[in-house]
Design a protein that fits this description.
Elements (H helix, E strand, L loop, with lengths): L1 E2 L16 E4 L6 E4 L8 E3 L6 E6 L67 H29 L6 H17 L6 H21 L21 H15 L4 H12 L6 H9 L12 H5 L10 H5 L7 H15 L8 H11 L4 H15 L15 H17 L6 H10 L25 H14 L10 H12 L7 H20 L10 E2 L2 E2 L9 H8 L3 H11 L2 E4 L15 E4 L2 E7 H14 L3 H30 L5
Parallel strand pairs: 8-10
Antiparallel strand pairs: 1-2, 2-3, 4-5, 6-7, 9-10
Helix pairs in contact: 1-2, 1-4, 1-5, 2-5, 2-9, 3-4, 5-9, 6-9, 10-11, 10-12, 11-12, 12-19, 12-20, 14-19, 17-18, 19-20
């Protein structure tokens, strides 16, 4: 739109008695307009009826005001300025949205109430589109940060980046978050819920079917903050914040990486993987959200909690199921090799036998599932390793651990002399691994396995963790910072002066956290004070974890495989096992970060499956040896 003669428009005064000459950009027609010709503050071309959006009629004439009393008016003008070039948005929108018209700079200052697009935030659909686009963009940026850390810091193959991108796009498309009627549907559903709550107080009524056909009806007027909350709640339900972690794990699973849900959970909790404080980087990477979204990054992307390992694996399985992925089983070889390496067990001897059991049984628990109550896949991998160890080292209740503890307490005696010939070390070389060495190695590895987080080591680490991860972006005053430094110096001086103060914390015995009783003493302390024997300690530990101790088998009728069963005592199931079996299973359970009884139940299920397969094979072989005679 051009002004006639290039002069500043004048609503009153010389040259037309308050008229303004405008040239239409559409048809090129030029004409003069009076302030009374404006409709809703804008002028329309008399030839083609196009609205002149670059010019507004303002209430600058004193005759327009019908008021009494003293009133002064001032006309504000500014020099002509060259329009600045607009910087294109870094992320183009994938769908046509109703963007407000660009506000061009004119020769006079427009009142703020008449700025084009000022009412854009009042439109629920426009507000929902902006919040939705900002939310999806932010989640994608967080996912990119997580993948970058996995590749650079944890040596994950770069293939996971391409897989995660494909999974993410399909997951967003499947969630239908970009439907055109999404904003209307969310508001209609909220209205239906509110009506149902109101009607529930007067009497029970069935909710009517919600239809998203608005027609000529106007959207319901709501408070702006309430509308924002409704949209954010819907987005967090359709695309949860933890879906980024699930996509990362799912991409690692498809890429055959030995990354477990426990790793993703630990790294996210400790702040090594961007999740808890990732919202602090969203504004830096996407720009300030004031121009695009009324909500801050803290309100959109700050998680309330970190999803657990079981829920993380179930969420990954649910995403794969919804987008139609045919997933393979877990990379058993890589995960089993990693576990054996962490327990310092001979990989060359154990892993081939475990792989044979895996290929023979192929249990369904090795595939991801969307059921959050199902046993995780890593537990099934542990169960296969335990069965392989029991078969190879003949751990079937012969009292190996008791013999080792007795020989360890006796002065100058060799524990191997009391072992049966089948339990002694084979060959006596360093490469061979006997049953006694196996149990001693597992007991030592059990004490060394550290499942605590890095920030829980001391107070300074915990305070730094709270400042950087739990409460990021919160600035303190100078007085508060000085007071915090004083308290830290006091704690540090007290800790250096009294090293025994650390013992006041919860202590552990053989890597198991003690439980406090009503009298204030711990179970572990009472068991140790009762007897210093290792057998008494293992009995007390088994009772604390829901196991019933079985004495060694006196009459060995055979060296066959021993199947354990659970026993009902006082109306509850109790796990029964020998000490050598418990020493074996507790190390694997602590490494997998699951309860010992959960792993024991998985072992029993695998044993039943193997016995069923063995029985089927035996029947088939008998049928081949004695073919029917026709």
């Amino acid at each position: 739109m051009d002004y006639g003669g290039g002069a500043s428009p004048d609503h009153y005064g010389g040259g037309g008695g308050g008229s303004i000459r405008l040239v239409c950009d559409n048809c090129g027609a030029a004409d003069k307009y009076n302030p009374d010709d404006a409709e809703d503050g804008f002028f329309s071309c008399r030839q083609c009826s196009v609205v002149h959006t670059s010019t507004q009629a303002t209430a600058a004439d004193p005759d327009d005001f019908q008021a009494t009393g003293t009133m002064s008016f001032r006309r504000v003008s500014q020099a002509n300025k060259t329009p600045k070039s607009r910087t294109p948005a870094p992320y183009p929108t994938p769908y046509p949205t109703r963007q407000p018209p660009a506000a061009t700079e004119t020769d006079f200052e427009e009142p703020r109430d008449f700025v084009v697009g000022a009412k854009a935030w009042d439109e629920p659909e426009e507000l929902g589109a902006r919040v939705r686009w900002r939310y999806v963009q932010g989640l994608q940026v967080i996912l990119q940060q997580q993948l970058e850390v996995l590749v650079k810091r944890y040596r994950v193959g770069a293939l996971v980046c391409g897989l995660a991108g494909t999974i993410w796009v399909r997951w967003v498309a499947t969630s239908k978050v970009f439907d055109e009627i999404w904003a209307r549907k969310v508001l209609v559903e909220d209205e239906a819920v509110q009506r149902l709550k109101c009607s529930a107080s007067g009497g029970e009524q069935k909710p009517q079917e919600v239809k998203c056909e608005w027609g000529g009806e106007a959207l319901p007027r709501k408070d702006r903050r309430r509308v924002e909350f409704i949209f954010v709640r819907s987005l967090r339900t359709m695309l949860p914040l933890y879906s980024t972690l699930s996509v990362c794990f799912l991409a690692c699973h498809i890429a055959r990486e030995a990354i477990l849900p426990t790793d993703i959970y630990r790294w996210a909790m400790e702040g090594k993987l961007p999740y808890m404080a990732a919202f602090t980087e969203v504004d830096r990477l996407l720009g300030s959200s004031v121009k695009h979204c009324p909500l801050s990054a803290r309100q959109l992307f700050r998680p309330v909690r970190v999803i657990g390992t079981w829920q993380l694996e179930a969420a990954a399985g649910s995403i794969a199921q919804r987008i139609g992925l045919q997933l393979p089983s877990v990379n058993f070889y890589a995960i089993a090799q990693r576990y054996l390496n962490e327990l310092s067990l001979p990989i060359e001897r154990i892993l081939p036998h475990a792989c044979r059991i895996y290929e023979w049984a192929l249990p369904a628990e090795l595939w991801l599932s969307s059921n959050p109550l199902r046993v995780p896949t890593r537990v099934c991998v542990m169960a296969i390793l335990i069965v392989a160890l029991r078969v190879q080292y003949n751990i079937h209740g012969q009292g190996i651990w008791e013999i080792c503890e007795t020989g360890r307490n006796a002065d100058g005696s060799d524990p191997d002399e009391n072992l049966p010939p089948s339990m002694r070390p084979e060959g006596g070389t360093s490469e061979e691994f006997g049953t006694r060495e196996l149990l001693c190695t597992l007991a030592s590895a059990y004490d060394k396995i550290d499942v605590a987080h890095d920030y829980s080591k001391d107070l300074h680490s915990y305070l730094k963790y709270c400042k950087d991860i739990v409460f990021p972006g919160i600035a303190c005053s100078i007085e508060e910072d000085h007071l915090i430094e004083i308290f830290q110096d006091m704690y540090k001086g007290r800790e250096d002066g009294n090293p025994k103060a650390r013992m006041e914390e919860t202590q552990t015995t053989n890597g198991v956290m003690n439980k406090r009783c009503r009298d204030g003493t711990s179970v572990g302390a009472r068991s140790i004070s009762a007897s210093s024997s290792g057998i008494q300690r293992i009995k007390s530990e088994m009772e604390d974890h829901g196991f019933c101790y079985l004495p060694p088998r006196k009459l060995l009728r055979s060296n066959g495989y021993l199947h354990y069963r659970r026993k009902t005592i006082t109306g509850s199931l109790v796990c029964i096992g020998h000490a050598d079996y418990y020493v074996l299973i507790r190390s694997f359970a602590k490494l997998a970060e699951v309860d010992v009884r959960v792993l024991h139940t998985s072992v029993l299920k695998l044993e039943r499956r193997l016995a069923w397969i063995d029985e089927r094979i035996g029947r088939s072989l008998d049928a081949l040896q004695n073919p029917p005679i026709s």
